Amino acid sequence: MKPPMPTQLTVVRVILFVYVVLATLGLLSFFWLVSESGAAFEEAVALTGMPMGLFLVGMLFASGVLILAFVAALRMGSGGSRTQTLLRTALAMAILGALINVVQGSGHLGFVLVLVALVLAETRAAKEWFASTETENDQDAAPTS
Q1: Is the backbone of residue 105 left (phi > 0), alpha (psi -120 to 50) or beta?
Q2: What is the full per-residue pLDDT of the chain (145 aa) written as tens digits?
Q3: Alpha carbon distance 17, 139 (integer Å)
Q4: 53 and 87 in contact (C-beta within 8 Å)?
Q5: Which site among 91, 104, 124, 145 is 20 to 30 Å from 49 CA-CA?
Q6: How far apart are CA 61 and CA 28, in angstroms?
Q7: pTM for the whole thing?
Q8: Which of these, 2, 87, 61, 52, lies nearest to 44 by C-alpha position?
Q9: Which residues, at least 6 apart from 133, have a Cβ–Cβ distance to it below 8 Å?
């Protein structure tokens, strides 16, 4: 039987879902504002001060981070080393994205949320829980004769 997920990881899971919702609302609000302004998409991107290519790469990166964070939050309950690696990757990419936003002058709340989640995900209790659930996952995945 799998031990219950520690409180720290439950908080991490909630933070990830909140982060995904906030970031998704931020992305959607940008596109909504562009569509309501009546300006061409190229004009709206030019107002950001970024070249179109860099803007599109940033949007793809942000979308990828949101998907990764959402999947990590969904999978956290299964435990194991693969899930821990997925969580660490999602948090590292989210930190990078949030740091880019902070440098540009926004996204301070997102940065703090992800930083708190990263610290909580690396506590001893969290690491021990992932390690203890790894053994169960190995036994569940073993082929039967």
Answers
A1: left
A2: 788 999 999 999 999 999 999 999 988 998 898 888 888 888 888 888 889 999 999 999 999 999 999 999 999 999 999 999 999 999 999 999 999 989 988 889 989 999 999 999 999 999 999 999 986 555 555 555 4
A3: 30
A4: no
A5: 91
A6: 15
A7: 0.85
A8: 52
A9: 2, 3, 78, 79, 80, 83
